[in-house]
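Task: sequence design from structure.
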């Protein structure tokens, strides 16, 4: 089981998210556990006040470090204690994969003007889900919870379903289709209806490469490209110089067609004898 402990001032924001759909089923089956800790329970005063005005002046309120420390001390030891902050490292699929191997993750969800800077000494890691600002860390917590939990064995119905996801393979995902086969003049690609698994796999890989090239070319240098991928990208207009910049392997050398020796005919034999 992987336990997620979220230290927050608003556990009611995360409670429904953690108890519904796939996450709720995973929790019911004992695959994950979501522990919502209300930091107001550790305020240390009768008014449950957890924040105070910042030293040096300024707008807003700051969550006290002693409150955060008491809340963290109430938990069993965690593999990682993570603070959501705009200054943190960017949360990526690789981060999710790494965190999914842990057994207990604790997260500090800030509000107001954030935490007293001394909280940084209580954490092992700082994360950001993007270059934008929200009103608190609960939105980031929901994103990280879903991204990490779905990678745990048994959480998803199909164990292979997440391996072809966008970013898991290093590329954007290929397009998917289902019924109806025709809609508003748009049909399903014939290759997907033919039943040839090899052709389908090649088509999907080509589509993933094309989508990534047009929408997120910054992903290609770390996508683990193959010689066949390089050949496909060249056909899409990429230059050899770009492939070299991305560290991509050269495309396969064109196969040389072996010419069969020409059969000697009776006429040929007669011509040589006459000469």
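Answer:
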């Amino acid at each position: 089981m992987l336990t997620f402990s979220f230290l927050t001032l608003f556990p009611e924001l995360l409670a429904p998210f953690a108890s519904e759909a796939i996450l709720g089923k995973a929790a019911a089956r004992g695959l994950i556990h979501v522990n919502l800790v209300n930091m107001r329970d550790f305020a240390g005063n009768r008014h449950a006040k957890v924040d105070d005005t910042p030293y040096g002046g300024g707008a807003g309120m700051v969550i006290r470090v002693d409150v955060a420390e008491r809340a963290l001390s109430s938990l069993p030891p965690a593999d990682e204690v993570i603070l959501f902050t705009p200054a943190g490292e960017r949360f990526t699929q690789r981060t999710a994969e790494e965190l999914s191997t842990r057994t207990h993750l604790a997260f500090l969800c800030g509000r107001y003007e954030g935490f007293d800077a001394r909280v940084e000494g209580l954490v092992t890691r700082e994360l950001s889900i993007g270059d934008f600002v929200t009103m608190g860390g609960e939105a980031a917590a929901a994103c990280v919870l879903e991204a990490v939990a779905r990678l745990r064995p048994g959480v998803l119905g199909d164990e292979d379903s997440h391996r072809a996801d966008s970013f898991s393979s290093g590329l954007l995902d290929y397009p998917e289709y289902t019924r109806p086969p025709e809609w508003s003049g748009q049909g399903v690609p014939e290759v997907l209806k033919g039943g040839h698994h090899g052709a389908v796999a090649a088509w999907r890989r080509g589509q993933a490469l094309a989508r990534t090239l047009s929408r997120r070319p910054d992903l290609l240098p770390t996508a683990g490209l193959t010689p066949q991928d390089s050949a496909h990208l060249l056909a899409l207009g990429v230059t050899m110089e770009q492939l070299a910049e991305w560290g991509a392997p050269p495309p396969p050398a064109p196969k040389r067609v072996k010419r069969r020796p020409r059969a000697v005919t009776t006429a040929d034999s007669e011509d040589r004898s006459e000469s």
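Residues 4 and 148 are 10 Å apart (CA to CA).
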